[in-house]
Design a protein that fits this description.
about 180 residues, about 50% strand
Length: about 180
């Protein structure tokens, strides 16, 4: 189910799951303009919730033949829902954007760097001509890393890596749009 935590700390149930529906929700993001919540499934499924329409499945996952693997997503100022992850069709890691008309994830940018697994992301799109994705990831050496992907470049720029072998992971990242 989907819960909303009220200011007084009490949960309010917004939507409930159904035992017949297979949807492995793992990540949430918010469109601050419309208030719509995006719900991301680990195998490429996608759903939305808003007060007017309630809970709606936009794309059901295919567990036997997944199209994408992701653990999070974000909503861009350009109106697009994005996920960092693995695109099974292209066989590469990248940023995928949701196409509501085609009801599918479309690879926006991919990169050739290997050795890191994208976990969380945020979108900085103050200038719609230069959309930047910031992706927090875990490297194969168990270090935490931070990358920037500028839309349209198919290049992941390594920004930061933790020291040591901290086996934790980033479980959230936001852009500082007020700086």
């Amino acid at each position: 189910g989907l819960l909303k935590l009220a200011w007084d700390g009490h949960p309010e149930r917004l939507a409930t799951g159904d035992a017949e529906t297979e949807f492995a929700a793992i990540g949430l993001a918010n469109d601050p303009v419309t208030g719509t919540i995006g719900i991301f499934d680990v195998y490429g499924g996608f759903a939305t919730y808003n007060a007017a329409d309630g809970f709606e499945f936009q794309l059901m996952p295919d567990f036997a033949n997944p199209t994408a693997y992701t653990v999070s997503g974000a909503h861009g100022d350009d109106g697009v829902w994005y996920v960092p992850g693995f695109d099974y069709t292209a066989g590469t890691y990248g940023i995928l954007g949701y196409d509501p008309e085609g009801k599918q994830w479309i690879l926006q940018d991919s990169w050739s760097e290997t050795g890191w697994d994208p976990w969380m992301m945020t979108v900085d799109a103050d200038d719609l001509d230069r959309v930047e994705f910031y992706v927090a990831a875990s490297s194969q050496s168990a270090h935490q890393t931070l990358w920037r992907v500028i839309h349209g470049t198919n290049n992941a720029e390594h920004l930061w890596e933790s020291e040591g072998t901290d086996f934790g992971a980033f479980y959230g990242i936001v852009s500082n749009m007020y700086e």
